[in-house]
Amino acid sequence: MKIIIEESPDCSETEIAIRCKELTEGVIKIVSSLRALEQKILGTLEGKIHILSPEDIFYFESVDKKNFIYTDTEVYETSLRLYEVEEVLGDSEFFRATKSTVLNISKIKTISPKLGGRLDIELVNGEKMMVSRQYVTILKEKLDF
Predict the structure, then answer these.
(1) Given phi > 0 = left and psi -120 to 50 = alpha, else beta, which region is 144?
(2) What's the pTM?
(3) What are the residue ranges spanned by the domains of the chain?
């Protein structure tokens, strides 16, 4: 794959053109990831609604029928249920890791296999997470290994 970036003061907005011999699954993943960057997620913190970019989100978690968004420094509450998060962001860097979490792959630092087929994950902020064995294949597909 060849990547060309051109800077021009004449551009009023960023434009991305993809030229390919054939529309492959890899190209479709790239397009999905780019579209996900345009998505905005709403989170509530201290009575204020915040507009969050997916690239700032480490993971989503459901606890006691409440749903939370975790960033590097804050925890926001959201009205989105985890299946809705998957619908909105599932084609990008996010995947279901357990029944109660959806993780951002780009925030993973290390992956360690454990007994029983599950994986332990360390995020770039040092937080430890787990991937249930039923979701390991999804992560492997997204990482192409």
Answers:
(1) left
(2) 0.74
(3) 25-106
Strand ranges inside 82-143, DSSP E: 94-98, 101-104, 108-113, 119-123, 128-131
Question: pLDDT tens, 45-63?
Answer: 999 999 898 889 999 999 9
Say how far apart CA 70 and CA 83 lie, in whole Å: 17
Q: Residues of the chain with pLDDT > 90: what percent?
A: 46
Residue whose token pair is 């700032």: 56
25-106 has CATH 2.40.50.40 classification: yes
Q: Enumerate helices (H) and strands (E) in the chain, giving the number of each.
A: 3, 10
Phi, psi of 10 (to 5 degrees): -80, -15
| Cα 144 to Cα 2: distance, rounded to the nearest angstrom | 19
Q: How far apart are CA 107 and CA 122, in angstroms?
A: 9
Token duo for residue 2:
């060849």
Q: Are 142 and 95 within 8 A, CB to CB? A: yes
CB 106 within 8 A of CB 99: no
